[in-house]
Amino acid sequence: MAIESNPIALQASRKSTKAKSTTGKSTKGQVHDKQGERQETNMSLANTSRPSVKSCADKVNAKYIHGRPGPELVPSRYALKVGAIDVMVVSDGVLSLPGAMLGHNVDPAVRAAWLEDMFLPTDVLEWALNVVVVRSGGRTILIDAGMGAEFPDLPRSGKLVRRLEDAGIDLASVTDVVLTHLHMDHVGGLLVDGVRERLRPDLRIHVAAAETRFWESPDFSRVSMPPGFPDALRRTGKRFLHEYQSQLRTFEEKHEVAPGVLVTRTGGHTPGHSVVRLASGGDRLTFAGDAVFQVGFEHPDWYNGFEHDPEEAARVRVRLLRELAANRESLVATHLSFPSVCHVAIDGDVFRWVPGPWEY
């Protein structure tokens, strides 16, 4: 369905155009002078309004003057069924990032008002980091792999290996890995020391061909990331492709990994960004990766700082949310609050997040 025929998308498009016009950007936003792009990106990264990740983490930690709950007293895995398919959402931890990352194309006061309405701090936001384990047709499939140790200033992430072990999942039992894209918070867990040696030699890693091509020479001209992130992402992407090249199984648009497990390229967030659709016995669930963030239900037109093509990412978000609202299937996403299982409803001109009931 073309985005122009979608009233929600049209409303989002009008908002985006207004937001871009107030920031002095072209309303078309399609053709950029390359030198101007580099200057804009460098200015964005150097902008003092973009605090470092370490300063964000320090600010969050300062709030817990009486300490935090024990490390594994807070739930970190959640199991459910999609028909005959076993599904487990596993938390890799949280990422402490600037609140501006939620919508860098909107007035800061508007963004701050939304965060306050959601009872969230306006300066630093803790993003959930979820991965999924699926069992279907005799295969054990890991969907994304978390942060690992790729960014030391985010020490409250990178918990996946331990939490898989706590759930009784041996790394050697994983037959397939599906990667929604190659950002470091999705592949870093595979680069942790000792992990590759514990994985089976015939492991298959499924990723869109457009994604591997992109990371041969990635373009960061449209993003708005904290200092240090572009270099870390380039380094991680290059290392991952080098270390796992022989185990990659690329696809163009769609690929069925196991019965009822279909990975589909969406683009937008990155050129090869993909979602995973689960279907069995009339039940359906979509793992949306980074296509949907918490703010994206009410404001699907807000540009996330990690989106390499923010206009296309917004179009992907609207199409996906509209489809999920129509067919009433469950949604899980990387950065929705753990365990993130929810539904999507249409609420006037926008979408509404509906948390799923806890399955005991």
Counting DSSP H or I runs of 4 or more residues, the number of helices is 10
Share of helix, binned: 25-40%
Please tell me what the overall shape is. globular
Structural class: alpha/beta
The number of E-state strands comes to 14
> What is the terminal-to-terminal distance?
38 Å
**Main sheet: strand order:** 1-2-3-4-5-6-7
Order of helices and strands: HHHEEHEEHEHHEHHEEEEEHEEE
Question: Which spans of ≥5 residues are poorly predicted at pLDDT below 50?
Answer: 1-48
Mean residue pLDDT: 86
- Using only CA atoms, what is the Rg? 19 Å
Strand content: 15-25%
The major beta sheet can be summarized as:
7 strands, mixed
* Assembly state of the chains shown: single chain
SSE layout and pairing:
Elements (H helix, E strand, L loop, with lengths): L6 H16 L11 H13 L6 H10 L14 E6 L2 E14 L9 H10 L6 E13 L2 E5 L16 H7 L9 E3 L5 H4 L7 H4 L5 E5 H6 L14 H16 L3 E4 L2 E5 L2 E5 L8 E7 L2 E5 L22 H18 L2 E3 L9 E6 L2 E6 L5
Parallel strand pairs: 4-5, 5-6, 6-7, 11-12
Antiparallel strand pairs: 1-2, 2-3, 3-4, 8-9, 9-10, 10-11, 13-14
Structure characterization notes:
This protein has 360 residues and is of the alpha/beta class. The chain contains ten helices and 14 strands. The strands form three sheets. It has a seven-stranded mixed sheet. A hairpin with a 2-residue loop joins β13 (342-347) and β14. The protein is globular and about 50 Å long. The two termini are 38 Å apart.
